[in-house]
Specification:
4-stranded antiparallel beta sheet; about 450 residues; 6-stranded mixed beta sheet
Length: about 450
């Protein structure tokens, strides 16, 4: 059952960056007094706002309807009254309309016993409709609506449904903790996904060196009777990237510009499968998520279950405040995350972590010129020359950067992490990609 394997390029993190936060049990965060709920929490088009100031909303009520071919439903995380609809900026610099809700009234779900919905006789179409209705999106980062990802045409065969248990960025441990505490529910979510996708194989890829995670998932797999192959992966970054995990588990290359489905794979992470479990078996929309609050500047790092729309400032309070002022605040992990400048920014479906980092942790040192050391090439899992592409972007030679593979960059951050000249390589890739993307839209 156990196979140790890995793709050829990436980075091993040193021992001091392997924070055992998965050992911290998930705690319920306080319900926010004011929730700020963006209508764009997913890939695609923002949801259409269904409420206006003064409206009363219930916990879990639909407040944003999926609009356009790629979009997702948005639900009220709390009962209360809509104070206003206003524009906010999300960490990626994207502007979104947000529904601001003052807490008030009765909770429909909180504190009530969950009833398990008998889902086994639902058709594939009914399961997909439920997943869409409850606003489930891939919680691994891309936030693509799950009902669309799972709507595979009859002409395409799914070879493998992969449960991606490799949460390999430092600090982040929400998925790892979910696997320890909610393993049977995640496996139920996988059964639902398998009924929709009818894959030939079910695979769980899980990293070594995370005590408790493997044991919990193995127990749940065995007691479920579901034929899931468990494959153990080396703890090597970016093992959790979709293209790398397909290479590792199936020995297939996802083509440039393609998707895992092009080589027969569908991948979902534990958080997404847990959301599917809640959507289908509990009929619960995505109104909360588990995330990690960590970093040297926060007093008590925690894994928290948090209502969508909770301001980041409330998480700081929840974790005992700061030990020192953070040098940098990052949403998601230190390798692929985005800097945050406003503590009023709310938690969204994509917030897997919030890191409050000290200057020691971000090794703040001055940027210098490229040393032509080649380290970025040695570690790039996509086989790119990040230093060269960065220079092309720096000189606005976007077409040449594209020819050199800019659009294949997975924004994994390995190159920036290893660069001794502290050149912001990933940020450069993001700028280059957005320029190429905008140009494509304009032309
Ligand atoms: S160029 Fe992109 S894919 Fe390659 S190491 Fe840098 S961020 Fe990762
Ligand atoms: S790692 Fe940094 S310094 Fe070395 S070649 Fe790449 S960009 Fe230049």
């Amino acid at each position: 059952m156990s196979i140790f394997t890995a793709f050829p390029k990436g980075v091993f993190f040193p021992r001091e960056m392997k924070f055992p936060y998965w050992e911290k049990p998930i705690e319920n965060s306080s319900v926010p007094v004011v929730s700020i709920v963006p209508l764009l929490q997913h890939a695609g088009v923002p949801a259409e706002c269904l409420v206006q100031p003064g409206d009363t909303v219930r916990e879990g009520m639909l407040i944003g309807r999926s609009s356009g071919s790629v979009s997702a439903q948005v639900h009220s995380p709390v009962p209360g009254t809509v104070r206003e609809i206003r524009d906010i900026y999300l960490p990626r610099g994207v502007k979104s309309s947000a529904v601001v809700i003052d807490l008030g009234g009765e909770f429909d779900r909180l504190g009530k016993k969950n009833r398990i919905y008998p889902w086994e006789n639902l058709s594939k179409a009914e399961l997909l409709a439920t997943i869409a209705d409850k606003g489930v999106v891939g919680l691994g980062g891309v936030l693509y609506p799950t009902h669309l990802k799972y709507s595979v045409s009859k002409s395409r065969k799914v070879e493998a449904l992969i449960l991606n248990g490799a949460e390999s960025e430092p600090y982040l441990s929400a998925d790892l903790r979910l696997m320890i505490e909610k393993a049977p529910e995640i496996i139920e979510g996988m059964r639902v996904a398998a009924k929709i996708l009818e894959p030939r194989r079910l695979i769980l890829g899980i990293e070594t060196g995370k005590p408790g995670v493997f044991e919990a998932m193995k127990r749940a797999v065995e007691s479920s009777g579901v034929p899931i192959e468990i494959i153990i992966l080396k703890s090597f970054y970016p093992q959790g990237d979709e293209k790398q995990i397909v290479k590792t588990l199936l020995d297939r290359e996802v083509p440039s510009g393609g998707q895992p489905l092009d080589v027969g794979a569908v991948i979902s992470n534990p958080g997404t499968l847990f959301s599917i479990y809640e959507a289908v078996l509990l009929q619960k929309p995505v109104i909360e998520r588990v995330l990690t609050v960590a970093g040297g500047a926060i007093r008590t790092p925690k894994n928290l279950k948090v209502r969508i729309g909770t301001p980041i400032s409330a998480l700081v309070e929840e974790c005992g405040g700061f030990l020192e002022l953070p040098e940098k605040i990052v949403i998601r992990g230190p390798m692929m995350g985005y800097s945050l400048y406003d503590l009023d920014t709310p938690v969204t479906k994509g917030t897997s972590g919030v890191l409050f980092l000290t200057s020691r942790e971000i090794k703040s040192s001055r940027r210098s010129n490229c040393l032509n050391c080649g380290r970025c090439i040695e570690c790039c899992p996509m086989g790119l020359d990040p230093g060269r592409i960065f220079k092309l972007i720096d000189h606005s030679e976007f077409d040449d950067a594209k020819k050199d593979g800019l659009m294949d960059c997975r924004e994994c951050g390995c190159c920036g992490y290893t660069c001794p000249a502290r050149i912001p390589l990933v940020q450069g890739m993001r700028v280059g990609k957005s320029f190429v993307g905008n140009k494509k839209v304009r032309s």
